[in-house]
Amino acid sequence: FKSHNLENIINAFRNHFLLQGFSTDPLPVFYDIEMDLKDLNTEFLKWMDLLEPFGAGFEAPLFHLPGLIVDGFTELKGGHMKIKVRSPDGGKAIDAVAFSPSKSLRDRLPKARQIDILGEVQKNYFRGNQQIQILIQDVKVTL
Q: Could you read off the pLDDT of 71-122 as tens digits, one per residue?
C-alpha cells in the first residue's frame, strides 16, 4: 500500500470497529499511588523496604508521577534511556530509567519538556552512593 493511503486505512479500521461496538475512548490507566516527586526521600525508601520482598503475587507498587519537568536526557548502551526529572516547583532532579523503550518513546522523549511517568521507585547503588531512581513503565508527554 502507499503511504498516502495510510490515513484512509486507519479511518476504515476505526469505523469498522466502531460499528462492531468498540470504543475509541482511551484505555484506563491503573496504578497504586499518585505522588509528588518531592515526596521521594530517605524516609520513603525506608517505608518501601518494609514492604519487600516483591515478586510473583506481590508486585512492586506502580507509582503515577504527574507533571514532571524534563531536565536532561541521555541515551545509554543497549538503547536504554535515562531522563533527569524534577518537580515543577523545583527541587532536586531524580533519574528515571527506561529499559528497551519503544521507538515511539525514543522519538518523543528527547523533545519533551514535561511528562507524566508510571513506574517503580527503586534504590540505585553506583560507586558507593545510594540514590532514588524511577524505573519507567510508561510515559505520557504533556508538553
A: 988 888 888 999 999 998 888 899 999 998 888 888 888 788 999 999 999 9
CA 72 to chain centre: 15
Nearest-angstrom CA–CA distance, 28 and 1 = 33
DSSP reduced 3-state for 136: strand
Cβ neighbours around 32 below 10 Å, total: 13
Cβ atoms < 10 Å from Cβ of 123: 11
pTM tops 0.85: no
Judge contact between 82 and 101, C-beta under 8 A: no
Q: Evaluate whether 94 touches 134 at the Cβ level (below 8 Å).
A: yes
DSSP, collapsed to helix, strand or coil, labels residue 60 as coil
For residue 45, what pLDDT is reported?
Answer: 86
Q: What is the pLDDT of residue 97?
A: 94
Residue whose entry in the numeric block shows the C-alpha cell 540505585: 124
